[in-house]
Description:
nine-stranded antiparallel β-sheet; single chain; Glyco_hydro_43; GH43_C2; mainly beta; 42 strands; 1 helix; hydrolase; disordered N terminus; 1% helix; Glycoside hydrolase family 43 protein
Amino acid sequence: MSTDTAEVATAARSIRNPVLAGFHPDPSILRVGDDYYLATSTFEWYPGVRLHHSRDLVHWRPLGGIITDRRLLDLRGCGDSNGVWAPDLTYHDGQFHLVYSDVASFASGYWDPQNFLITAPDITGPWSDPVKLHGRGFDAALFHDDDGTTWLLAMSADWRPGRDRFGGIEIQQYDRAARRLVGRPRILFTGTPVGVTEGPHLYRHDGWYWLITAEGGTSWEHQVTVARSRELLGPYEVDPDGPLLTSVGRPDLRLQKAGHGSLVRTPDGGWYLAHLVGRPYSPLGSCVLGRETAIQRVEWPAGGWPRIPGGVPADEVDAPDLPAHPWPAEPDTDDFDTDELGPAWSTLRRPAAPDWIDLRARPSHLRVHGGQSPVGRQAPSLVARRVGATRCALETVVEFDPVDHRQLAGITAYYNTLNWHHLYLTRADDGRTVLELLSSDNGRRTAHPELTVNTGGVTRVGLRAEFDGPVVRFGYDLGAGWQQLPVELDATILSDEHAALIIDGEPAAWGFTGAFLGLWVQDLGGDGGYADFDRATYREH
C-alpha cells in the first residue's frame, strides 16, 4: 500500500509504548508541518543518529541514519558505548539543524567530548560539512529564540578530582551566519540535589523559558526535571512539585529508567514528551533490549507547570486528534536486492562502504569482506540489526570457503567487544569446514568443542540465532532441515547492566547500546576472505 494512498480516515487513538522498541535512546523529537521526527543515539554504530518519521505520533517508520560517512564522523577506534551521544534535531529558517556529541572516553572523570553541527534543507540531506563546536561537555542542543538568535546548550563537564563531574548546564550564543560560537559561555542551571544534570532542551512558551533536563543518571534513578525563567539567562526556578517524569521507586512499572525527554507541540496546541525507557526482564533486572523511546501526553495549563498524569511512564496514552497514518510493514526478509543496505541494518565502527560491503558483485547477495577480531576497533566486519522484542530470531543463508582457522563467518547475538555469542563457519586443522560456537562474557571466552558440526562439504549453510527471553539459541541447516544446537546461552550478558563495570568507584565500562543480531565475518590474517549472504530474515514472536 502506497503511503500516498494510505487510509487516513480513522483517527489514531492511542500511542503504545515504547514507540521505538530496542536500542533507541536519548530521543530528540521535532515537528515540521505535518511531519514528526525522532532522532536517537547510536554510539559506536553507523549510520550515526538513527532517524524515524511519523505523521500521527503512533506509527513510525525508520529512515535510516543521518551520519553515513566519515566526512561527518570517524568512529575508527571508538570504544564500547562511546561515539554518538544524545543528538539534537531542530528546524529553523528553512534548515534542519543536527547537533551531536562524539564522546571519546569516560574513564577517570574524563569524557573528551567533541560537539558538531550539520545542517540540511531537507531531512534526507544533503547535509553540510560539520561545524566543530566546543568540547566542554556533551548532550549539546540548539535553541532558536524568538528574536532570531540561536544558542547552544550542553552539560558542563568538570574533570577535577573532588568536583561534581556534572557541573551544570552551559549556554553560549551561536552565530548561524558565521557558523561559530560567539560570546562567553555561562552556567545556566546547576540542577537539583538529584544531580547528574544533563540532556538539556530549552523551549519558549506562555511567556517563560522552559528548561528540560535529565537527572539521576540514565539507569533506575533517571528522571525529567523542569525549570523555568522569565529571562533566557535565568535565574531558573525548579518545578516545586518535583520531576515531570520518573520511574524511581516504582519497580512494578513495566517501563523503567524514564528520563532524558524532549517536547513537541501538535498543531492544535497539545504537548507530548518523547523520552527513553528500559524494559527489564525482571524487577530492576537486565534490559537486554537496551534503552528505548516512549512518548507521553503532557497537560500544560496556561500559567502553570507541565504535567504528566501520575508523573510516571504509561504503557498507553491518548494520541493527538490526527488522521491515522500507518506505514507499509517492513518485510521480514531482506533479499539484498538493492545497492545499499536497508534502514534496519547498522554497521560497527565503519560505514557500509564498498571496501568491505558489496551488494553488486553478486546479485541478490550481501558480500561481506572479513575484518578484525571481536576486540578490533578499527575495521570490524559486522552488519547487524537491533533486537526489538524479547522473543525474536534472525535467519540467514551463507556461502563461505575459509582457507584456515583465521577466517570465520556466521551469525551473532552481539552487545559489544566483550559480550557476544557467535556461531560461525571456519576451517579445521584437518581441512574440514566446520561450524563452531564461541561465547564471550566480559571478555572471558567459552568455546563449545563438543558442539562442533562437520558441514560435509555443503556450500550453502542456513544459520539461525534466536532470543527467547533470557536465553539465546542457535541452529543450522545443511539442507535437510533445521537442527538446533543443544545448548542454551545466557542472553542477559547482552544487556546494558551486564556490560557496565565499576572499579574502585570509577566507570571502567558503560553499557548504553542494547543487543543486536548480526552477520559477522572475520579475516584475522588479512588474506582477503569474504562471505556471501543470500538473504536474512528477522521475525518477532
